[in-house]
Each structure stands twice: as C-alpha cells, then as structure tokens.
Automatic annotation (TrEMBL):
This is Mannosidase endo-alpha like. Belongs to the glycosyl hydrolase 99 family. GO terms for molecular function: alpha-mannosidase activity. Keywords: Golgi apparatus, Hydrolase, Membrane, Signal-anchor, Transmembrane, Transmembrane helix. PANTHER family: ENDO-ALPHA-1,2-MANNOSIDASE, GLYCOPROTEIN ENDO-ALPHA-1,2-MANNOSIDASE-LIKE PROTEIN. GO terms for cellular component: Golgi membrane. Its main location: Golgi. It is a single-pass type II membrane protein. It is found in: Golgi apparatus membrane.
Length: 292
C-alpha cells in the first residue's frame, strides 16, 4: 500500500516512523525519473532509492521523450541496479511467479500499439519471458482506457487520483465494473484511495474537485469502497503530496503570512497513519477470508 509522489528530505526522516506506526506489510511506491530527467520538486528519486529501500516499487513518470522503447530501457536499468536487493518488491502472480511490479503514470500518452511492442510476447522488444519480465500497471482515467490497457499488453490498471468523481477511474461507483472487466481479462485492478483532495493553492480554478476530509470519513469511505471489490492491492495517494492535500503523514497545525496549512484537528497529528494501520489490518483479515 502507498504511493509517494515527490521525493524529498522528509522521506528519509519519516520512513522509519511511518512503518513503525502504520505497522503493516506495505510497499513504498517511488515516483521515478531516469537519471538526469528528474522534476524540480525535491531530490531525484534515483539519489534516494538506497535511503528508502525497505520495500520498494517504482512509479514511472511521463518524462520528456518517454515511449515504449525508453521505458524498456528504464526497466532494464532499474532491475539491473536494484533487482537483487532484498527489498526490491516482487508480486507473486496467480501462477506462482514472483515478478517486479511497475506503475506507469499517464500510460495513455503512448498508444497501445506501441506498448504492445514492449509488453506482448511477440513485440519487437518484448520483455516477456525474459529476465526483465515484470507486472506492468497502467493508469485508467477514461473508460476507453481499459480497452487500450488490455490491447497494450499491460498486466493491470490503477486509478491514482484521490478525488472521487474526478475521472472515470477514480469514481468509486465505477470500481465494481472495472474490477469485473479486469477479472474477465486476467488483469489486476488496483483502486487508489486518498484522505481528501485540495489543490487550489496551485490550481485556483479547480475548487470543484476539492474533497473535504470530514475528519477521516472521506478516507474510510474510499477504503471501504476499495475493500468491497476484493482487490489484490490497494494504493494510497499519497504519503506526502501536500500541494494536492492528499498527505497522510504526521501533520502539525501551522500557518504563515500567506498560508494556513490544513491539519487533522480535532484529531492528533498521527490520525491518518492510525486509520491506515487499522484499515490495513482489516484488509489483510478480509483477504485471508477471500482466499479460503
């Protein structure tokens, strides 16, 4: 469980705290750019991977020039560099294979016929049945993307966005149908949940997508919606993406001359970590029953 969007110094200081408090078998999903192509927020993830390598998967970002061939090369680079580390996350498939898992953000920017050259067994630079074979998860935003994801050779889809109703994929009411489509086509469906959403500090026009936390009820409603469809994996958006108001990390009341930061009062600073632990425990209990 868990998506980290921008990587910064706080990740170093909070990773131990997060896992000791949340206390569940989670995976850090790091936003990753190739060396030299990191965004302007925080340090390049490449420099921080050794510092946070406890249980790690990678969230491949839409850097300039990204296509099926460059992602092929990225996967090779990541597996060559980190694949032998004990904390490099691998997902066990229904057939018993243990494979790395990668999330491809904004996967729809590349057409499915290009992805298929990389992700289907007959593709011109396929990784299937090679040392670099992995579980590749695409982003579903619009309904039509589910067909493109299937045609492209992906292994599943995730929804990412924390704002219920923002997109087809992020709308809780659509998850049952998406899960049925995935089950019928041997794909993973990974719903993404968040504690709330507010990005008006950077997108003043986007107030209609704000989702109030309601003291944790929004988060718990999303988590329940996810558990209702019995997924293999649930991701959380996010640990520390403050500029979109989706963080679950420890938060203290703070205000500056220009801004008042949202906090978790009347609850304590650890409220969302505590909720995460509780729901992770519930998820694991229910999952055991599903598999009986």
């Amino acid at each position: 469980m868990g998506i980290f969007w921008d990587i910064s110094q706080c990740l170093r200081s909070y990773q131990t705290f997060f896992f000791s408090l949340a206390a569940f078998p989670g995976v850090l999903v790091l936003s990753w750019y190739p060396p030299g192509l990191a965004d302007d927020n925080g340090e390049p993830a490449e420099d921080l991977v050794p510092a946070v390598l406890d249980a790690v998967a990678f969230h491949i970002q839409p850097y300039r020039g990204r296509n099926d061939q460059t992602v092929h090369d990225n996967i090779k680079y990541i597996i060559d560099r980190y694949g032998d580390h004990g904390a490099f996350y691998k997902f066990t498939t229904g057939t018993g294979k243990s494979l790395p898992l990668f999330y491809i953000y904004d996967s729809y920017l590349t057409p499915p016929e290009s992805w298929s050259e990389f992700l289907t067994p007959t593709g011109s630079h396929s990784v299937r049945s090679s040392a670099y074979d992995s579980i590749f998860i695409a982003l579903i935003v619009e309904e039509r993307h589910k067909h493109d994801i299937l045609a492209g050779g992906f292994d599943g889809m995730y929804t990412y966005f924390a704002s219920n109703g923002f997109s087809f994929g992020s709308s809780h009411q659509n998850w049952k149908a998406i899960k049925a489509f995935c089950d019928g086509n041997n794909l993973l469906f990974i719903p993404s949940v968040g504690p709330g959403y507010i990005d008006t500090s950077i997108r003043p026009w986007n107030n209609h997508n704000t989702r109030n936390r309601v003291n944790g009820r929004y988060y718990e409603t999303a988590l329940q919606a996810a558990l209702n469809i019995r997924p293999e994996i649930v991701t959380i958006t996010s640990f520390n993406e403050w500029h979109e108001g989706t963080q679950i990390e420890r938060a203290m009341p703070k205000k500056t001359v220009t801004r008042v930061y949202l906090d978790y009062q009347p609850h304590g600073p650890n409220h969302y970590l505590e909720l995460t632990r509780r729901w992770a425990e519930e998820f694991n209990k229910e999952k055991e029953q599903w598999l009986m």
